[in-house]
Design goal:
Elements: E1 3-8, E2 14-18, E3 36-38, H1 65-69
Antiparallel strand pairs: 1-2, 1-3
């Protein structure tokens, strides 16, 4: 279920909303206007240490590949 960021064209309120389909109508939670503009969204990924050992064995995580090979990789 995607989370999108919207900005109301009437009152300027920024909000995040769960939207099931692109046809779903969104309204401003502040003023009730349907004049909403989809904004830019960011996302984050979090992994606990050791949850996917070897996930960056090629060094793609930004650490030297030798860190993963030696078992000292935090990912």
């Amino acid at each position: 279920m995607p989370i999108y960021e919207y900005v109301c064209k009437d009152c300027g309120e920024e909000s995040e909303m769960l939207v099931w389909t692109s046809e779903e109508r969104v309204v401003c939670p502040s003023c009730g206007s349907a004049s909403m503009k989809k904004g830019f969204s960011t996302f984050a990924v979090s992994m606990s240490a050791g949850s996917s050992k070897g996930a960056c064995a090629d060094g793609s995580c930004g650490l030297p590949a030798s860190s993963c090979a030696s078992g000292s990789c935090p990912f």
